Amino acid sequence: MRSQVTVTWGGASTFRFDLEEVQPMPHDQARAWLDDQFNFFGCDPIRLTGKVLTADKVIAVAQAAGQERFSDESHRPWAMAFVRAASAALGKPSITVDVPTMTIGY
Q: Whole-structure pTM over 0.90, yes or no?
């Protein structure tokens, strides 16, 4: 089964990460990593109720981190941690995070 995460801002600003040869991140660790990054970047809940879904965290962290964290080779370890956490926390092998539309596709 193909395993990859794509993070896009549209057009040439699309970054694909192959997870075939990468050690999976445990689900609990993935959720904790996303929580830490959500707080680190000072992300706000998207929903008026204040409830933050895992998918919302993935989008918010990607948006707050910005394109450079995904495109710049010096940030590759962070980007790989993000895609491993997103894949594990969402429980899907193939994910597309569309930052401008704030959607996730499977």
A: yes
Distance of CA 70 to the CA centre of its chain: 10
Q: Considering only residues 46 and 106, tell me which one the structure prediction assigns the higher pLDDT.
A: 106
Bridge partners, 105 (sequence order): 96
Calculate the alpha carbon distances from 103 to 15, 38, 71, 79 in Å.
15, 17, 20, 18
Residue 8: φ, ψ to 5°: -130, 145
Q: DSSP characters for 59-85?
A: HHHHHHH-THHHH-GGGHHHHHHHHHH
Distance CA 105, CA 21 (A): 22
The single residue listed with the structure tokens 């794509």 is 6
Number of domains in the chain: 1
Domain that holds residue 51: 4-105
pLDDT tens for 26-64 read 999 999 999 999 999 999 988 778 788 999 999 999 999
